[in-house]
Each structure stands twice: as C-alpha cells, then as structure tokens.
C-alpha cells in the first residue's frame, strides 16, 4: 500500500498514513524528507513503533541528541518506572509543567535541536494534547516595521530562566540543559539551513536581548510569541496510543496541553541534534553577561 499524505489545513504539517515506518521504501523516504522540509511537521498516527524503531526513524533525520547519558530515547511521563505518579515537588514533574509554555527544544543548549520525534504510549482521557505553531508563517505575517525592528536582534536562551519564570527554580545540574548563568545567543530571525525560509526563533527560553532593557525585551518577546501562535499557524494534536509526530525545531514551536496530572501520560521522545553549521551558538560566561558583552551574530 502506498503512502497517503493529508493536509492538516494549517500553514504547516501533514498527516502520513498507509504504511508502517519500518516498511518505507527509499523512494518513500525521499517523499517523507521532502514533506518534512515543505511542511515542517509530520503526523504519523497509530505506528506503534518499538523504541528501536523510533530511534531508527529519528536517525533518518540526523544524529541523536542524548537527553541522558547513553540513552537515545527517553520517557516524557508523569509516571515513574514503578507506576507511581509524580508529585509536584519532583523536578521531572516541574519539567513537564514547564513544557506547557511554547518553546523549541534545546535552544538553551550550545547546539540547538534539529527535530524532535514524540510518540504516545499512554494518554489521559482528556487533555494532554501537544500543540504546534509554524514560525515560518508567523514571520511572513509580521508587518514590515516589525520585520525591520527585529532583523538584527538576538536573544539569550536559558532553561533555568524559563523554568524560574514558570515558578520552578532549578539549581545548576538539577536538570538537563546546560548551566544556570551563561546562555547561548541566537538571532530572532532564523534562516532555515535547507529551505532558506526565514522564521521567528523565539519561545519561553528566550529571555534577554543585548542592547535592550530586560523589561522591553520581555515585552517584545511576549508580543511576538502571542501574535505568532494563532490560527491558522497552530495545530493541536490529540494523541492516541501509537501516534508519532516529528517536527522541525528550527521553525516550529510546541507546547504540552494540561491534563489531570493524577492520570498517567507516557510519551517517548527522541531528539535529533542540530547541525553545528546552523544550530551552534556562542555561549557567554557569567562575567561577560554581567558586563553586557554582546557577541556578533553567530549565524545560527
Ligand atoms: C518535549 C515536549 C510536549 C508534550 O518532550 O520536548 O515539549 O506534549 N513535549 O509532552
Ligand atoms: Mn519540548
């Protein structure tokens, strides 16, 4: 049976059905890769991939970013391996709640992510969707004045800052995601390394803009984010067990939707590393930050 591609009726995203991923032919892989670059997010319902199949799928897109030493696939879940549901005091629970803010994965790391592949194993009866937003279309929709205003701006990205802003203060080393004080500096407008399309590179980890007062930067970043994440640029995926979605972190934001956190929700996440030529950013030290050091554009 051949692959069927169905539009999500948004500015981005396509649903692919008709075949299990491990059975894709080389020609079909070419079609899938072209679709990834054209549509920026691929939804593949009811694939029921094993962890190894999930990893092999992600590896088609590039090298894996290890989220824990030695582990290519990690659970994104409010349930411990022994079945116990996490409590709000736990750092991993707080990371899940942080995921409810719009973000792009690993923008706070020196090497930002290329793509993330998220698969559903156990889903709650209600809520717990994942929402996505197309930052290419969001950039295109900006007025000329805003495009000019942000053309040469960059923002620092930090997981510690975004978690603290969400009410969860982490100490250095308490979670995946670099260190508390230095932070990568990334242009607000990112040019896609494959398609050449500009997109807004923002989200909750972005917190400071060199050359601007912090309050002004926060207001600008909030305004850009709110305006960007509107229909028809957003798609909310209602998970069923076995579904897998892969999105392009270079031009798509995502966030988890709330649910009853007393119910289990078990997802499996494999993250594809960015390419150093386009996703590596300069990281400033605390001293440089304190002195207002603003390196030149990194090209990332
Ligand atoms: C992630 C993430 C969203 C979700 O795994 O990086 O943001 O809906 N997940 O679980
Ligand atoms: Mn995420």
Could you report the average pLDDT, rounded to the nearest whole number? 93
- The level 1 CATH classification is Alpha Beta
Cα radius of gyration in angstroms: 19 Å
Count of distinct structural domains: 1
Helix and strand content put the structural class at: alpha+beta
| Unreliable residue stretches | 296-300
Q: Biggest sheet: strands, sense, closure? A: 8 strands, mixed
Number of strands: 17
Categorize the overall geometry.
globular
Order of helices and strands: EEHEHEEHEEHHEHEEEEHEEEEHEH
Report the portion of residues in β strands: 25-35%
Architecture in CATH? 4-Layer Sandwich
Terminal-residue CA separation: 40 Å
Describe the structure.
- It is a single chain.
- With 300 residues, this protein is α+β, with helices and mostly antiparallel strands.
- It has one domain (4-290): 4-Layer Sandwich (Double-stranded beta-helix), CATH 3.60.130.10.
- 25% of the residues lie in helices and 25% in strands.
- The protein contains nine helices and 17 strands.
- The protein has helices at 26-39, 51-59, 91-98, 135-140, 144-150, 159-165, 214-228, 276-279, 286-290; strands spanning 4-7, 14-17, 41-44, 64-65, 74-77, 113-122, 130-134, 154-157, 183-187, 189-191, 198-200, 206-208, 234-237, 244-248, 252-256, 266-273, 282-284.
- The strands form four sheets. Strands 1, 2, 3, 4, 5, 6, 14 and 16 form an eight-stranded mixed sheet that branches.
- It is globular, with a radius of gyration of 19 Å.
- The model is unreliable at 296-300 (pLDDT under 50).
- N-oxalylglycine binds next to strand 6, strand 15 and strand 16.
- The site of manganese (II) ion (MN) has 4 residues, from loops.
């Amino acid at each position: 049976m051949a692959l069927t591609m169905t539009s999500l009726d948004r500015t981005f995203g396509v649903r692919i059905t008709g075949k299990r991923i491990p059975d894709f032919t080389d020609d079909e892989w070419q079609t899938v890769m072209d679709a990834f670059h054209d549509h920026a997010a691929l939804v593949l319902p009811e694939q029921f991939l094993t962890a190894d199949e999930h990893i092999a799928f992600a590896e088609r897109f590039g090298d894996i970013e290890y989220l824990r030493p030695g582990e290519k696939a990690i659970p994104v879940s409010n349930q411990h391996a022994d079945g116990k549901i996490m409590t709000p005091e736990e750092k991993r629970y707080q990371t899940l709640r942080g995921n409810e803010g719009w973000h792009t994965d690993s923008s706070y790391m020196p090497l930002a992510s290329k793509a993330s592949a998220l698969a559903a194993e156990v889903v709650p009866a209600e809520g717990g969707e994942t929402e996505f937003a197309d930052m290419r279309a969001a950039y295109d929709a900006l007025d000329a004045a805003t495009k000019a205003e942000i053309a040469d701006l960059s923002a620092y990205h930090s997981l510690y800052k975004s978690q603290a802003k969400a009410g969860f203060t982490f100490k250095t080393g308490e979670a995946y995601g670099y260190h508390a004080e230095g932070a990568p500096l990334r242009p607000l407008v990112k040019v896609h390394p494959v398609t050449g399309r500009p997109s807004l590179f923002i989200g909750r980890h972005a917190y400071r803009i060199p050359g601007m007062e912090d309050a002004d930067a926060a207001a600008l970043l909030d305004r850009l984010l709110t305006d960007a994440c509107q229909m028809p640029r957003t798609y909310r995926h209602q998970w069923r067990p076995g579904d897998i979605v892969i999105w392009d972190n270079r031009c798509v934001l995502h966030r988890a939707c709330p649910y009853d956190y007393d119910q289990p929700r078990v997802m499996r996440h494999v993250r594809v590393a960015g390419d150093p030529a386009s996703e590596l950013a300069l990281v400033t030290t605390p001293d440089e930050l304190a002195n207002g050091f603003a390196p030149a554009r990194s090209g990332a």
